[in-house]
Amino acid sequence: MIIKSAEFVISNSDxxxxxxxxxxxxxxxxxxxxxxxxxxxxxxxKKGLAMTSSKPGKTTLINHFIINNQxxxxxxxxxxxxxRSKEGREKLREIIEDYxxxxxxxxxxxxxxxxxxxxxxxxxxxxxxxxxxxxPFSIVFTKADKLSALRLQTNVExxxxxxxxxxxxxxxxxxxxxxxKQGRDEVIDYIGKIQSQMV
Length: 199
What we know:
By secondary structure, the protein is an alpha/beta fold. The chain has one domain (6-198): Rossmann fold (3-Layer(aba) Sandwich), CATH 3.40.50. Helix content is 34%, strand content 21%. The protein contains five helices and seven strands; from the N terminus they run ββαββαβαβαβα. It has a seven-stranded mixed beta sheet, with helices on both faces. A hairpin with a 3-residue loop joins strand 3 and strand 4 (71-75). The longest helix is centred in the middle third of the chain and has 17 residues, at 86-102. The protein is globular and about 45 Å long. 31% of the residues are buried.
């Protein structure tokens, strides 16, 4: 699939206020500072579409971007930002969970994971929660350029080994680098494949 256009549409904190045109949505989520905005800009080939920041935890709203006027790329708030107040974390959790569980237009959730680190409990528990609620998701490893090829492979295999302890079948897995545009075609083609099956 070729992305010809990518435009920001709306930001809000309530899934009920999201676009009502019925177009399919592919959402991206991950812990704060996982490189989500950079990945979105890389996927859409549009620098500055999603706001990047040196400060983690800046995305606090549901952000909709219309792609090729056919489907939405949705940028969800990051989770697990420790410096946010308990009340703030609870509010974000509510925004995220309401969208994921109630938004019927959601087709697939891409869960972003920093490939440099070993499996984090917060990510594993989040994926477990997705599985329990029957939410289709994929794993996107980010920042692959920060590791050697051998270390990258070792880390990904270790992550898979950890997941297989709880899962009978692994979700689709993508390895990406926003710097090198690695994994872009694979993620976009995956969305394109789902889109073609929906027609």
